[in-house]
Specification:
Elements: H1 2-22, E1 42-57, E2 63-70, E3 81-89, E4 95-107, E5 112-130, E6 150-153, E7 167-185, E8 187-188, E9 193-216, E10 224-249, E11 254-280, E12 286-317, E13 321-338, E14 358-372
Antiparallel strand pairs: 1-4, 1-14, 2-3, 2-6, 4-5, 5-7, 7-9, 8-9, 9-10, 10-11, 11-12, 12-13, 13-14
Length: about 375
């Protein structure tokens, strides 16, 4: 009896399973391709983008502003005040135009597409700060200074934070080029949502410029002092790129897009600093006139994180060409891009020169036009 029941159970279970397994795979595409224009064997894709971006780098404050405060020393009235830092002087970042152009091919091989683009962007910013003249060169040692006497120091000079300055001015600039080449596929996963996973190669090369100048005039107990440092960082890297683009379709013509990608590129950076300082006493005698050049070379992996979001309009005309326009916001984050070095001690012979390891952000508005034909 038990054998008969087992046989009946297995028969009821296995026959439908075998029948299902013997069926062919579902006909047609599982994820229909957004791919070529209907009726064509493939399309050429050309696009151009206008960029209105800003650039910013962390760990690039060009000076420290401070003022004298009371020491609270009632025993030594001659040491009644000392200079203390109160604020970092940072750049107010500016906006500049850029461009991106791309060329691709959409194939009829399951809708795969091959695409490459080149991005160009240049950004620069200048800033300056000043305080009223002061009468003492060394405010770091407690003394009978007027309370509230303001002055600047900076870690970028030959004697980091070793001199007190009345005026500091700085300039930063970056020239950035990037080429992406990738293979991807756009397909529908629902009636109103399409995805485009892709992978490829990214190469970039850039130049970063940074200059800081500071000075103070000769006064009663202060020498004339002028100092300057000019940095240059040249970088390049090549590596792997991967990501996914999404389009959330409101109707056949309008959609919201959201894109993300990451890249790891390995390459080289050259860093060079040219510094000088001049000191003259109240009688016109030169106390010091020093110039020096310092260099560094670094091999490292440069990580990228890319994000974009915006609105898109597209339309296919008579099954012969497709137009697309979109407007969005992009952010590109380069981790530890800034390798400029600065001093840690106010004595030239003993200072260390660690890299700042600051992050670079390129971000702003992007307007694109594209044609597939």
């Amino acid at each position: 009896m038990n054998k008969k029941l087992c046989f009946q159970f297995l028969t009821m279970f296995l026959i439908p399973l075998v029948a299902w397994a013997g069926q062919s795979s579902p006909a047609g595409e599982i994820t229909p391709s957004v791919g070529p224009i209907p009726g064509s064997n493939g399309n050429v894709r050309v696009d151009a983008e206008f960029l209105w971006w800003y650039g910013s780098v962390t760990d690039l404050s060009y000076a420290i502003k401070g003022k004298t405060v009371a020491t609270g020393d009632a025993v030594n009235p001659a040491q009644s005040a000392v200079w203390t830092p109160s604020k970092k002087e940072e750049f107010d970042w500016s906006w500049d135009p850029g461009v991106r152009i791309g060329l691709g091919l959409i194939t009829d091989h399951d809708g795969w597409d091959v695409y490459s683009n080149w991005t160009y962007f240049y950004n620069s910013v200048t800033d300056s700060s000043s305080v009223p003249p002061f009468n003492d060169s060394n405010l770091a040692q407690a003394g009978p200074y007027p309370l509230g006497t303001r002055a600047f120091t900076s870690t970028w000079f030959l004697t980091p934070n070793g001199e007190f300055l009345r005026r500091v001015k700085a300039k930063w600039a970056i020239l950035f080029n990037q080429i992406d080449s990738r293979l991807g596929r756009s397909f529908w996963i629902s009636r109103y949502l399409s995805l485009q996973p892709f992978f490829g190669v990214r190469a970039y090369w850039s130049r970063m410029y940074f200059n800081v100048h500071g000075d103070r005039p000769a006064r009663v107990n202060a020498t004339l002092f002028s100092t300057s440092s000019t940095y240059g960082q040249k970088s390049w890297a090549v590596g792997l790129l991967g990501g996914i683009n999404t389009a959330w379709h409101i109707n056949p013509n309008w959609s919201i897009f959201a894109n993300t990608s990451i890249a790891l590129a390995y390459g080289k950076s050259w860093i060079r600093r040219k510094s000088s300082q001049l000191e003259i006493d109240q009688t016109g005698v030169t106390l010091g006139n020093l110039s020096a050049t310092t260099q560094d070379t670094i091999y490292q992996t440069q990580p990228f994180v890319d994000l974009a979001m915006g609105a898109r309009w597209e339309k296919t005309f008579k099954e012969s060409f497709r137009l697309l326009f979109d407007l969005g916001w992009e952010t590109h984050f380069l981790i530890d891009y800034n390798q400029l070095f600065r001093g840690t001690e106010p004595v030239i012979s003993f200072t260390d020169l660690p890299s700042t390891n600051g992050n670079l952000t390129l971000s702003g508005l992007t307007a694109r036009g594209r044609i597939d034909f």
